[in-house]
Amino acid sequence: MMHAPKLFTLFATRALALALALPLAFTSFAAHSQTGYPDKPITMVVTVPPGGAADFVARTIGEALSKQVGQSVLIENKAGASGTIATAFVAKAPADGYTMLQGAISTHGIGPHFYTKTSYDFFKDFMPLGVVAEFSLVLAVNANLPVNSVQELIDLAKKRNGQMSFATPGAGSAPHLTAELFMTEAGIKMLHVPYKGSAPAVVDVASGQVDIMFDGFPSLMPHIKSGKLRAIAAVSPKRNSLAPDLPTFAELGFPKMISSLWYMPMVPAKTPKEVVERLNQALVKSLNGTEAQKRLEAGGAQLVFGKPEDSQAYMKAEYERWGNVIKNAGISTTN
Fold first, then answer.
1. Rounded Cα–Cα distance for residues 235 and 224 (Å)
2. How far, in Å, CA of 29 to CA of 285, rounded?
3. Chain centroid to CA 172: how far?
4. Residue extents of the structural domains in the chain
5. Helix 273-287 to helix 52-69 angle, to the nearest 10 degrees?
């Protein structure tokens, strides 16, 4: 099984192959159009309320896909229970290509470790559509904390003997597990302060109530620009385009520190293969090299393209990787 970071090469190769194959895709679209799909609006179900990264990605992708297939893509927000309400709804929906899920690390990467008593199987009941939108995480500290580098942060954490604090959007979230991974790799201990969402967590780190946090750039950037937060390092394979001067953890000697908030559209697993293929082609055509891709990248996202099976491998690699982090950190997953 390949780890998620190693899949970037695979996705890059797939993206090139897909770009070269686009003329064939047009022919394929013409053939599929004879079947009548889609002949009515498509619904994309999102696991969170309107606003935020997941909703932004869904609406941008939905608008682009709508133009490509000639039907409306309606966004339906079904928030609650850490995404399991929306996920269960799509799992039970007709497998006809008209109901999609905005899958995420919370529903198919980390969530399966914490929510084992669901009415659906996280992997057997879903088929990803070959597009992943990633928001790499960033480590930021309160501006008054006397550190300007990862090593200075580690030294201070050791000096404070476990009393340094880190905020997260909630226990079991990607930022939480990223902080746990950091503590394991750095050999330090810090106090976990969980919140109900990123917004209140960022506010308390900016005000100095909590020392540090990992989160996506969209949440942190306003406070970084105001000078209340200081970005220390990017948790990504390469430097973030929104902060090209910010070093990555890998550059600083922490190659395992790779983490992102990722989202991928998916459909019920029994959706006909030809419908899955059409949606894959439509998504690539509507996003690869388009204004929609520029909008997503301007918001901090990186798009990777591939076949549905590539996304499936990516998803399972993330599940295994975060399972190891949970185990090594001794985090309880009882539910």
1. 16
2. 11
3. 14
4. 4-134+260-329, 135-235
5. 100
